[in-house]
């Protein structure tokens, strides 16, 4: 009994000391951290109560009346930034371009400080610049890329026609098309074999469910992987990594075997050219680098694009009036016998507004980061210690009533003025600064062409006359709860 009392008193003293030091050092406000676990239990309770980390962070922002708050996840110091002004300061400042390198990040990157997502420094800048140049040389954002997307759209429409007047789910039909757009860009061909395609999609979904944006239990308590490899998720993550690597290395090895100098037709070929005849391994062009670049492309591209489209089809199913107005506009620009063109986008202001409003309310990655402070700095008058982990809550911007009137309402008309689409400058869909998503153009093009193409040819009605639930499932990326639509081919 005496020992228990001693432990309790010691813990309370530790909490008081930590918070006293916080006040003296002028660090951002936040809840009292408990020894060992920090604010982990509180964060989990708020996530469960409000429906995800983005809601939990917003609640803490209101509670402490500050756009910048300080949390301790275990012994890790995490700065959560909310609000447009504060987030823009992070995005525009090179001091926050770095990434944390903890145990969880190591697992995510298979122990390799490579790729374009979870690394920083001169090599990251070199690889990112190479990727942007290479994508441009491959027709990124041009007619060739548009044709690849439209090829996949035709396959989607064919599948949908075969299920006309049936109750279906949209994502299983859309996701294979998205993965093949990225796959053809990277490898020069589609994944034709259905079983192989489904395996890769399943692998990506398993991975998405296994990871957590704040770093997960493994970054907070890295030692737990030794004593509880299964319950901590360590075994699952390493298994998924092994499968992921084997799947991609099969394609990389095939490209190495068949590579011919001067005949590069895809991203892998272009990397091999740089590795063999360009700047070479000394500049970072290694097989491990290629593997991680591919992993980053598929992780960033598949889940976000496919789920963004899934949310769009969900909103159209729920808001039949918006769907009707959208299709009236599409009918006036796109004929029944043709597919949408990227050039049509500027003549479809309401369609653009619908896509924008859906992403505002249901941004697939509502919390972006993590970032790492390279040096000691200040933000909104608070001290940000060197190497602090920083998360940015984009949801706090998109649902702020100071930025958007009646922000929780789905209202595409808010972006229209004199029948012209006027984008809001406070929308952040693809990050910003030096870490702005390099795949933005292909993602936006795929979303527009697939969404407008499907809605031009099909009406989506609630399946079994049940209105789907618009509340998303929380996670690394948010996603719609499983829903069904009654698919009806349009005759006009």
Structural account:
By secondary structure, the protein is an alpha+beta fold. It has a single domain (2-489), classed as Cytochrome P450 (Cytochrome p450, Orthogonal Bundle). Helices cover 52% and strands 10% of the residues. It contains 18 helices and 13 strands. The protein has helices at residues 2-25, 40-50, 53-64, 84-92, 103-108, 122-137, 143-162, 171-187, 194-210, 216-220, 224-227, 234-258, 267-277, 287-318, 320-333, 349-361, 395-398, 440-457; strands spanning 68-73, 76-82, 167-168, 367-372, 377-379, 382-384, 389-393, 416-417, 420-421, 458-462, 472-473, 479-480, 485-489. Strand 1 (68-73) and strand 2 (76-82) form a beta hairpin. The radius of gyration is 24 Å and the shape is globular.
Shape: globular
The helix count comes to 18
Structural class: alpha+beta
In spatial order, strands of the major sheet run: 1-2-7-4
**Assembly classification:** single chain
CATH superfamily: Cytochrome P450
Radius of gyration: 24 Å
Beta strand count: 13
- Fraction of residues in H or I helices: 40-55%
CATH topology tier name: Cytochrome p450
Regions with pLDDT < 50 over 5+ consecutive residues?
A: none
> Which percent range describes the beta-strand content?
5-15%
What value does the average pLDDT take? 90
Give the CATH class: Mainly Alpha
Number of domains: 1
**Largest sheet entry:** 4 strands, mixed
CATH-scheme architecture: Orthogonal Bundle
Instruction: Give the distance, in angstroms, between the N- and C-terminal Cα atoms.
Output: 80 Å
């Amino acid at each position: 009994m005496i020992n228990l009392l001693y432990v309790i008193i010691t813990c309370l003293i530790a909490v008081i000391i930590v918070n006293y030091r916080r006040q003296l050092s002028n660090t951002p406000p936040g809840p009292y951290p408990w020894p060992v676990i920090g604010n982990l239990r509180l964060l989990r309770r708020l996530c469960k109560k409000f429906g995800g980390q983005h809601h939990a962070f917003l609640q803490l922002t209101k509670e402490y009346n500050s756009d910048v708050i300080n949390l301790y996840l275990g012994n890790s110091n995490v700065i959560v930034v909310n609000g447009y002004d504060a987030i823009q300061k992070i995005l525009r400042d090179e001091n926050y371009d770095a990434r944390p390198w903890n145990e969880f990040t190591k697992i995510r990157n298979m122990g390799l400080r490579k790729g374009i997502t979870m690394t920083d420094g001169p090599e990251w800048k070199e690889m990112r610049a190479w990727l942007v140049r290479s994508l441009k040389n491959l027709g990124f954002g041009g007619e060739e890329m548009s044709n690849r997307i439209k090829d996949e759209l035709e396959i989607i429409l064919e599948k949908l026609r075969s299920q006309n007047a049936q109750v279906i789910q949209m994502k299983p039909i859309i996701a294979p098309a998205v993965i093949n757009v990225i796959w053809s860009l990277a490898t020069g061909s589609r994944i034709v074999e259905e079983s192989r395609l489904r395996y890769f999609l399943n692998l990506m979904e398993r991975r998405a469910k296994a990871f957590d944006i704040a770093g997960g239990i493994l970054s907070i308590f890295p030692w737990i992987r030794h004593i509880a490899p299964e319950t901590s998720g360590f075994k699952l993550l390493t298994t998924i990594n092994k499968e992921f690597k084997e799947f991609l290395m099969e394609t990389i090895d095939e490209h190495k075997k068949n590579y011919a100098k001067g005949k590069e037709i895809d991203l892998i070929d272009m990397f091999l050219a740089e590795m063999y005849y360009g700047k070479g391994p000394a500049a970072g062009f290694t097989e491990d680098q290629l593997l991680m670049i591919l992993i980053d492309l598929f992780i960033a591209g598949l889940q976000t694009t496919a789920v963004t489209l899934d949310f769009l089809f969900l909103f159209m199913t729920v808001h039949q009036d918006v769907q009707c107005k959208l299709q009236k506009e599409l009918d006036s620009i796109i004929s029944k016998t043709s597919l949408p063109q990227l050039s049509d986008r500027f003549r479809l202001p309401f369609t653009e507004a619908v896509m924008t409003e859906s992403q505002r309310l249901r941004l697939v990655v509502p919390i972006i980061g993590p970032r790492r402070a390279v040096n000691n700095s200040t933000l909104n008058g608070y001290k940000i210690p060197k190497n602090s982990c920083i998360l940015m809550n984009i949801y706090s911007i998109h649902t702020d009533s100071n930025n958007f009137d009646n922000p929780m309402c789905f209202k595409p008309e808010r972006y229209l003025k004199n029948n012209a689409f006027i984008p809001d400058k406070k929308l952040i869909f693809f990050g910003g600064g030096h870490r702005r998503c390099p795949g933005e153009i292909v993602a936006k093009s795929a979303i527009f062409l697939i969404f407008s193409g499907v809605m031009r040819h099909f009406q989506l009605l609630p399946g079994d006359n049940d209105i789907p639930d618009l509340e998303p499932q929380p996670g690394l990326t948010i996603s719609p709860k499983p829903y069904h639509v009654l698919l009806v081919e349009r005759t006009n």
